[in-house]
């Protein structure tokens, strides 16, 4: 029988014809022929052991031969089995699939089947299980020299046999996922061990397996669970750390990075033939492979450049096997995968499809107008930079995938333009063999890069054009003035065409207009350039913004980044250059008004609890405030925002942005300060329907605005307005306007003492001393309700007293004894000593045993509210030798939270006089004032 099987492989035609005739007479005897072959493959001497090896940070499960065995017998049996399968075809596979191994008539084979735990499998499944065992197995280290040569032949025969069984068999072949995992592992090992001879055979098998397995859900990390021994081994064959798609991407990525160009071509052909099965696996297969191809192409182009750019022509060329064929093959794969990814993410009836059909710039204005709001560059940015949308993550998955696919398109265009640029430099005259090959390769690579760009542009004209225009700005930045003038007419014509159809080409506005402010030679020949720039900028600024570009859709992270970049460019380049380009004040005002309307306004007019905006918005406002022609554009918006009740809900860090703007607002309008001061009135409304609480809140906010104007200005800036301020504060202290307003008065006094020289504030002390003593004396007789406005008034008065103790002004030192003990009794009180200072008396009263229960619970509150003690850590910038405020909290919930302050303020003040002298930590004082003015976190 073995002689007859050998005859099926004979090169003699007569012998092979006789063997085939004998086999046709025994078509129903395939099982009897299979029994001795399976018996040989189930040799008990073959004992592969399961192991896991780590190759390039990936754990791969394999089988290892721990003992030697007769490989020649196994190889002979596999050769005969291959010949039998090729001859029998589908009939052989059908019979093998319908017969079970446990029904064999050979008792010796039955015993080996039971030992191998294959009794539940058919002949076909049993053969596949044995073939996969041989495919996964490698000799152990000590047996490598003896078994490795024939082991490679066994792997090759197994690959051919699997190809026959899968290509001629039925698609629902059991264990198809196991076959795929085993083939992928063997390919991964072959790639990293540089076993080139086997990869092509395995790729053919894997191609057939991939198509047979196309109906399975590729999103599962492991193979589907099937109640067979063969299918249960799928987990053993697959790497435990990677999903199937991740492992596939890893294998292909490593394979196309091999140095053998012929094998790389096989892998790219395999990828192009099988990628259709992965078109739904966009995020796990297509996009990572596109990244890999882009990186590989970039490296190939760089290697090509290094190979031919040798400074000394007599020097030896670097060794390289790179030709234009590799570039062409990889470009074909990149182009195919990229177009497939973009097609999979394109929404039905989207604007992108319409643009692809009409050709971008030449699209019908009437049809493009329905594709979303108009408004040019500034309309593109309406409402995008608001704080709420920046934090929002509610973006549809389809939009995210579309964005990721277009990001890969940009990477591909970058690589193709890089290849074009480098090959254009390397193309030269044919002088010797080196320059001949250099020119030949460079021309063919550049032609292929151009064809790829043309095809991408034909499919996605708008997106490709957007990527290409991004190169204009860096080009003009580096170009000389004469060169810039030569390309200026073309750029100007293109910009006017873009502006003529802004709705369809909104995203092209920024990269097109950005080069307008690039470095251009300021000679007489360039006289028209500023005028052209003026015309373009003015026409663009007059665009009417009907709605946001997304019409309610959430912007992706990339779009937000682009919009932020646009705003930053306007703030750093355009607005500072308005004086140079736009001499006319009316044009400058018009441009700035449009920026305020489309960019700054939507960012500040939010519905959030606080008015928070991106720092680039404030940068744009600051630049406008430096231009006298733009005052009318930004002044009304800043004024409206400043009078908004949510203005002071921002964090203290907002002072660095708002301070210069508020000072610019007051400076630009001399009546602004008087108007704000007039709103701080003690006269109550005569309307009986007026809400007194809202009236008190409005009066407190008006005073807070006046306070912030003083805080944001330099020292003695508002000395001329001091009489008005003093009059308002004295009237408020004496009038029954509510505890909330009185608390704001003490905050304003703190700012006033830091911004006005104290020699000008002597007239305030009689009223201040009277009101402070009246307030603190009332605490001795009347309890302060928790959480009340009166409590916050007491806390604000304590903060004012704390600040005066830090500043130690001459006027206050005269009256200091009324509030704190300024003698040595503060440190060493006599036994019969009774405190006379009001703060010490309050401290003794609050520490009375009758209120101990409340006082005991105040310790934790003191710490949480930032009442400084000796162990309190210093903040950044604070000096341990300088005096600084004790109270750091913004609000308190109970009077007992001030126990520590009342009890220790005299001691702290007395010690600070001798420890710090006249040194004051002004940075800590400023931080304390900003924390109290701005109530945000």
Blueprint (SSEs and pairs):
Layout: H1 2-7, H2 13-24, H3 30-41, E1 48-55, E2 58-65, H4 71-98, H5 107-115, H6 123-136, E3 137-139, H7 144-167, H8 176-192, H9 196-212, H10 229-232, H11 234-237, H12 244-255, H13 261-274, H14 282-308, H15 324-345, H16 351-358, H17 365-368, H18 376-380, H19 387-391, H20 397-426, H21 433-459, H22 461-469, H23 472-478, H24 481-500, H25 509-513, H26 528-541, H27 557-574, H28 578-581, H29 585-604, H30 615-625, H31 631-642, H32 655-668, H33 672-678, H34 692-712, H35 722-734, H36 739-755, H37 765-781, H38 789-807, H39 810-815, H40 838-846, H41 852-856, H42 858-864, H43 899-916, H44 922-933
Parallel strand pairs: 2-3
Antiparallel strand pairs: 1-2
What does this 3D model show about the protein?
Residues 222-307 form the DOP1-like TPR domain. Residues 348-373, 521-556, 846-882 are annotated as: Disordered. This is Dopey N-terminal domain-containing protein. It comes from Rhodotorula paludigena. The longest helix has 30 residues, at 397-426. Helix 6 (123-136) packs parallel to helix 8 (176-192), helix 21 packs across helix 22 and helix 32 (655-668) packs across helix 34 (692-712). This protein is elongated. The chain is built from 44 helices and 3 strands. By secondary structure, it is mostly helical.
